[in-house]
Amino acid sequence: MENNQPIIIKRVKRIAGGHHGGAWKIAFADFATAMMAFFLVLWLLSTATPEQKIAIAGYFKDPVGFSESGTPYIIDLGGTPTLAPENTLNPEVKSQPQPDKVTIDAEQVEGMAEQVEKERLELLLQELQTKVEENPQLKKFKDQISFEITPDGLRIQIVDAENRPMFDSGSARLKPYFEDILLAMADTIKAVPNKISISGHTDAKPYTGTGDFGNWELSANRANAARRALVAGSYPDAQVARVVGYASSALFDREHPFNPVNRRIDIIVLTKKAQRAIEGSQGAEPAPEPAPTQGQGGPGEVPATPADPNALPADKEPLPAHELRERLNLFDNPAPKPGEPPKQ
Question: Reading across the β-sheet that carries 153-159, which strands appear in turn?
């Protein structure tokens, strides 16, 4: 018996839902654009001068009334963009007050510039401290290296230790590890446009070498040796504002004048104000070295004028050229007297 019943096929119609996989891309693109604009603004602010920042702030406070060109309009086309009072039909235009102009005196600009410079030096201090902690070569000597912000700028102070002197005994020849310290710091210091001052200091022990060579000459030569090491480390020589020797006139530890820490090299990353003071006093008596603020000593006395190692005593006649050359050759590595130990 044949089965003639019809075969019924049921088809289920599936309706696909809407595509939701691309919405996040639009949101992410908007976020990326916003972040790019944000970092661009941060970059522009970090490179802007204090005057430019003031101009930008003034524009956002009063876009119509502020302009560096002195005109109360954003774009100065020349002439006047408003109608003359006698030709206007609106009497309110005559009585409408004009927006006040933003005025900034020189002291405000100077104060803002000093604040920006202080922040820059503080960032440099943090970067140098980080470098000392992260660099294995420098970390071994971190007890001999100190950083501080002074009125004249950022002071980098490197002192002698009993078992780790910076120089050969009684000379200006750098120890290899001290030279490595200066070479490592040169690249970081040159990142800021400020000039530097380098000063050398000795302890109070009288120098026992050649008669015409003393602590003044030794401290000046050691400061100049530090300058040469920085220049060898790619620091621009034109950025050195001053190299001086102070002998023992500004002791780090005044209660113990023979303490090795009194033998030190100070590198000051100068503020613009201190730099102008140095450049303005060229030919005059150099400004005294600031008294140390660390260590056991109290307020320092005003140190004497640093000695020029090439200068002759005022009461002596000029030496012949050949004798002067021989004497200058002794400055870097003077020979001690027979039977007398050299002094550090």
Answer: 145-150, 153-159, 264-270, 196-201, 240-245
Tokens of 272: 């613009």
Burial 135-163 (b: 16+ CB within 10 A, else e): beebeebeebbbbeebebbbbbbbbbeee
C-alpha 166/C-alpha 179 separation (Å) is 8
Tell me the pTM.
0.56
For the ranges 6-10, 93-97, 265-269, the one whose mean pLDDT is highest: 265-269
As a whole number of angstroms, the distance between CA 7 and CA 18 comes to 35
Hey, what domains does the chain have and what are their CATH numbers? 121-310 (3.30.1330.60)
In whole angstroms, what is the distance from residue 114 CA to residue 272 CA? 8
**Per-residue CA distances from 1 to 4, 6, 23, 335 (Å):** 9, 15, 62, 134
Q: Tell me the per-residue pLDDT of 209-231, one tens digit each, with 9 for 90 and over.
A: 667 888 999 999 999 999 999 99
Residue 78 contacts by C-beta under 8 Å, 6 or more apart in sequence?
A: none
Residues forming beta bridges with residue 245, ordered by sequence position: 200
Closest CA to 173 of 326, 325, 327, 331: 331
